[in-house]
Backbone:
């Protein structure tokens, strides 16, 4: 899969039509942050309402697929419960990236945007997140858009340049 960077910016998300948006959700992360918080904002609190109605808890292994309506430029949105954020590290990130990618691929997604779990809350550094995402994505067809804030993207772009990969 080709890896590109996508800013944590709704205007940039709107510039193209993307297949799937993969959003990590920790059980103890309220309000939602990062890409999940931004998507919730664009969806007028739809994700928050799912949480309040106990239809999304963020428990480990929980997966919710939903249509984005007309407010997001993705064909579908996946929410992935990761359990509590306490003790979240490299091994959990590697497992979760693989799981999220596999679910999206089995659902027929050929390209997807995701924020690496743990990035929105600072549990995982930008460079480390990128290294793990690169390890866990195949060189086959499709594309991965890695969502991050401007500071994280700067670190990631630098690492991609050092490795001779395009961003």
Residues:
């Amino acid at each position: 899969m080709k890896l590109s960077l996508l800013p944590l910016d709704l205007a940039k998300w709107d510039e193209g039509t993307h297949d799937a948006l993969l959003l990590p959700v920790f059980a103890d992360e309220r309000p939602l942050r990062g890409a999940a918080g931004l998507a919730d904002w664009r969806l007028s609190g739809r994700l928050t309402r799912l949480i309040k109605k106990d239809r999304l808890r963020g428990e480990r292994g929980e997966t919710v697929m939903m249509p984005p309506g007309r407010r997001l430029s993705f064909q579908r949105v996946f929410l992935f419960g990761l359990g509590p954020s306490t003790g979240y590290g490299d091994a959990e990130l590697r497992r979760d990236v693989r799981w999220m990618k596999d679910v999206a691929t089995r659902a027929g997604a050929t390209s997807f945007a995701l924020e690496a779990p743990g990035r929105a809350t600072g549990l995982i550094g930008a460079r480390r997140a990128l290294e793990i995402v690169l390890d866990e994505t195949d060189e086959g067809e499709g594309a991965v858009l890695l969502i991050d804030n401007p500071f994280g993207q700067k670190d990631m772009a630098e690492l991609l340049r050092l490795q001779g990969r395009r961003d």
Summary: The radius of gyration is 15 Å. The beta strands are 2-7, 18-25, 63-66, 74-81, 111-115, 143-148.
